[in-house]
Amino acid sequence: MGLAALGTFAAALWTAAVGPGAGTGGEIAAAAVEFRPAEAPGHAVHLGLAKAAAILPAGSIPFRLGVLSAFLLALAAALAAAAALRLVRVIAGGMGPAHAAVAAAIGLAAGLTAPALACAGPETFALQAALGAVELWACVGAVTADSSVPGGLTGRLVVGAFAVGLAAANHAPSGLPLGPP
Predict the structure, then answer these.
(1) What's the pLDDT tens digit per position in 86-144?
(2) Whole-model pTM?
(3) What span, in angstroms and rounded, lies between the C-alpha atoms of 65 and 54?
(4) Which of 11, 104, 112 is nearest to 66 (CA)?
(5) Which single residue of 21, 58, 69, 86 could bond 17 by disulfide (Cβ 3.0 to 4.6 Å)?
């Protein structure tokens, strides 16, 4: 999980924009500074995180938002690797170095795909990728939970439902599907 997160963070940070870039990046960066809705539907969850990132004293504001996106993509890669590792453990019935390597490769693949790295800027889609990965991690955990433990899957289901709610509130068209946009 750590390798997937670190590799994705490094690659996303490498591609992070130092300026607003194309698309709605400039509008989102300005909205983060002014703490106002960026565009319809407003991206309320991303706006709060972006405002916190914009306050950091390092680089330009679009670069700070790129660092936030890199962190969120690294989180998505780590959660995808954790979900993959859990599935491999359940299917293979144990844990070994090969299992960890497969999980790390899946996490890196999730984080280093071209669409994911295209999110490494001031745009809101890295948050949607992270929330989608939380949903995936929660669903895999709930499906593979030990049924003999009372309430063993309830926590994961609550986390997954919360992530779906945040994703839908932030950007409904891309937040409702299980996978990242």
Answers:
(1) 888 887 776 677 767 777 777 767 666 645 566 666 677 788 888 888 888 888 888 78
(2) 0.80
(3) 7
(4) 11
(5) 21
